[in-house]
Specification:
Blueprint: E1 3-6, H1 15-27, H2 35-53, E2 58-61, H3 64-76, H4 82-93, E3 99-103, E4 111-118, E5 124-130, E6 137-140, H5 143-154, H6 157-168, H7 181-186, H8 190-193
Parallel strand pairs: 1-2
Antiparallel strand pairs: 3-4, 4-5, 5-6
């Protein structure tokens, strides 16, 4: 891992604090957190993931004081029930890693977009995507919402991935623009289609 933690006042958080925050974020029910804090912790989690995949240092600006605050806040969140964790892992485990689209139950003309992510350690989670391709903001979902979204997608994963591709004209798996006639016809490239066979 290649993290570089800085702080303008010279008291940066330690590597152990940052890794502990990421671990707590994965194992606690964060439904009670503010949207701002969830967004901050999701961004931190993504940066740690990038740091594990590159030799270039990933710079994180966080003071020891802020790190302590995040740790205290996350420790107050209840742990995700191990039964719930098993259910989440089983539900997410049956889906291909991809982006998906689901129509809203109360308004089928409005679509929500999701991204199933798998880390190198095998841990999977489902984010809701807000914005548009190239400028997505990832919204962390609590375990219950991840399970609900995954169950709805699992009814027909390929149809949900195709719905994403049709709305954004990009492959749901690799995010490449769909330009070849065959890829446009199937809403997915030939390699990415194999995930859904």
């Amino acid at each position: 891992m290649s993290l570089r933690i800085i702080d303008e006042y010279g008291y940066p958080a330690t590597d152990k604090q940052v890794v502990f925050i990421d671990d707590l974020f994965a194992k606690r029910d964060t439904a009670t957190l503010t949207d701002t804090m969830r967004h901050t912790l999701t961004t931190l989690s993504e940066m740690i993931e990038r740091a594990a995949e590159t030799d270039k240092p990933i710079i994180i600006q966080m003071s020891r004081r802020d790190a302590s605050y995040y740790i205290d806040t996350l420790l107050r969140c209840r742990p995700i029930n191990s039964k719930k964790t098993d259910e989440l892992n089983a539900t997410l485990g049956q889906l291909p890693v991809s982006r998906y689209a689901l129509p809203r139950k109360n308004d089928p003309d409005v679509w929500d977009f999701f991204e199933l992510v798998e880390r190198k350690n095998g841990r999977r989670f489902m984010n809701r995507l807000l914005g548009s391709p190239g400028d997505w903001r990832r919204d962390y979902l609590c375990a219950e919402l991840q399970i609900a979204a995954a169950r709805a997608i699992a009814l027909d994963p390929r149809a949900s991935a195709v719905a994403y591709a049709k709305r954004h004209r990009r492959c749901a798996v690799c995010d490449a623009p769909l330009s070849h006639p065959t890829s446009i016809e199937f809403s997915m490239g030939p390699t990415c289609r194999k995930r859904f066979l």
